[in-house]
């Protein structure tokens, strides 16, 4: 039965068919995913559809829109954890739920059975225009608010796993995050372990002063750390000191940044889907360069093409750009950059190091503090180093401004 026939039957019987409305509005909502007033847009589309097709139900459109939203995007018991202040992650192990709040891992309310969680993850994927199956048992998606979701089911997993990384925009400056990020008020040159110095220390001041000066002087900065270390939050804090008339291109594979600046292009990659080609880093990089941005911010280097593209572009200009990378210290970050670039394009070690050294000015490592149970108790800056080229043997010349372990 066609949508038209079903609509006619509904008006004759005066019984609302929520699934019919969902089928009608879902394609339209895929076009506006991650828009800030996403729910209001859905309400207006439901209202327009009811006015055209179900005029009998016009007085009830708000309640109908709420039910449509719940059925399309509602996450059951997971909703309350995602709405909690301080929650960063929600994880589902079969029917068991655990959430991370202010660094602490806390047991949540369990689902009644596997079917209940199956409804949730299929709803999440459907809202993103995807599906999961025995043939494709692992999928990535985003919630309408930009939160990242990973779903893994059998046969890849023993039981269904759902990993939600909550999207939160912390639009705070360095001064505002200093209470949550230790050592920002320590002084440059405060080395807690022995490091051979390569040159005379010319800057005198705190790390806070150093980073503000570095951003204003358009130094290229790489922020290093584990998952959850606050790398993206730190990048966002640095952006408060960018000149207000600079044009910024933000390149992401998931929506993470919201800069306090007026002239920003936010561009995002996309995996290939049925009926839609992939949008790659090469695509968004090419498109951003047409705008001739003053600076480029790549939220995280995760893939070989992202590593190569970022270093390649910085060697062509765009001073004052920033990115993050997952690693356990400054030197390991450089090793990982090399490895990723080699995966994308076979280049000899010395050439790669020269390219990296020319592109990167400052590397910052942010570490996590844990208690005996494995809960995060704090975040701190552990290393700050300037990359001053390579020596005659092709080794990096690193000038450590700050080390604290």
Summarize the entry for a quick read.
35% of the residues lie in helices and 22% in strands. It is of the alpha/beta class. The chain is globular, with a radius of gyration of 24 Å.
Task: Please provide a written account of the structure.
The protein has 405 residues and is of the alpha/beta class. The chain has 3 domains: 3-73, no CATH class; 78-165, Beta-Lactamase; 174-403, P-loop containing nucleotide triphosphate hydrolases (Rossmann fold, 3-Layer(aba) Sandwich). Helix content is 35%, strand content 22%. It is built from 13 helices and 14 strands. It has helices at residues 3-13, 18-30, 38-53, 61-73, 78-83, 114-127, 174-177, 207-216, 231-238, 281-289, 304-314, 330-344, 349-359; strands at 87-93, 96-101, 104-107, 138-142, 148-152, 161-165, 221-225, 248-252, 264-268, 295-301, 322-326, 362-370, 376-390, 396-403. The strands form 2 sheets. It has an 8-stranded mixed β-sheet, with helices on both faces. A 6-stranded antiparallel β-sheet has the order 3-2-1-6-5-4. It is globular and about 80 Å long. The model is unreliable at 192-201 (pLDDT under 50).
């Amino acid at each position: 039965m066609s949508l038209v026939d079903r609509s006619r039957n509904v008006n004759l019987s005066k019984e609302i068919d929520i699934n019919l409305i969902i089928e009608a509005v879902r394609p339209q909502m895929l076009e506006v995913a991650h828009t800030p007033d996403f729910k209001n847009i859905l309400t207006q589309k439901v209202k327009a559809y009811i006015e055209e097709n179900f005029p009998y139900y016009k007085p009830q459109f708000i309640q109908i829109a709420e039910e449509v939203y719940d059925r399309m995007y509602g996450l059951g018991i997971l909703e309350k954890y995602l709405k909690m202040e301080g929650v960063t992650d929600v994880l589902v192990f079969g029917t068991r739920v655990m959430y991370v709040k202010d660094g602490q891992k806390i047991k949540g309310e369990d689902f009644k059975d596997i079917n209940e969680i199956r409804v949730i993850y299929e709803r999440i994927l459907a809202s993103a225009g995807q599906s999961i199956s025995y043939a494709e048992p692992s999928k990535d998606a985003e919630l309408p608010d930009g939160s990242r979701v990973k779903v893994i089911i059998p046969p890849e997993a023993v039981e269904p796993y759902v990993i939600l990384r909550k999207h939160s925009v912390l639009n705070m400056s360095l001064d505002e995050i200093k209470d949550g990020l230790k050592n920002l008020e320590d002084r440059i040159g405060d080395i807690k372990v022995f490091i051979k110095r390569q040159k005379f220390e010319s800057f005198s001041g705190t790390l806070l002063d150093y980073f503000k000066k570095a951003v204003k002087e358009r130094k290229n900065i790489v922020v290093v750390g584990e998952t959850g270390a606050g790398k993206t939050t730190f990048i966002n804090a640095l952006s408060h000191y960018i000149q207000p008339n600079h044009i910024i291109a933000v390149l992401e594979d998931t929506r993470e940044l919201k800069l306090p600046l007026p002239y920003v292009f936010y561009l995002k990659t996309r995996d290939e889907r049925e009926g839609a080609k992939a949008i790659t880093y090469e695509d968004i990089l090419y498109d951003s360069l047409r705008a001739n941005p003053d600076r480029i911010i790549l939220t995280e280097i995760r893939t070989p093409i992202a590593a190569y593209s970022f270093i390649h572009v910085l060697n062509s200009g765009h001073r004052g750009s920033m990115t993050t990378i997952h690693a356990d210290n400054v030197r390991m970050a450089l090793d990982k950059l090399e490895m990723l670039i080699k995966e994308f394009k076979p280049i000899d070690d010395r050439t790669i190091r020269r390219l990296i050294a020319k592109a990167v000015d400052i590397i910052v490592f942010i570490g996590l503090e844990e208690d005996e149970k494995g809960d995060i108790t704090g975040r701190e800056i552990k290393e700050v180093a300037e990359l001053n080229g390579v020596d005659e043997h092709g080794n990096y010349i690193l000038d450590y401004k700050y080390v604290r372990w």
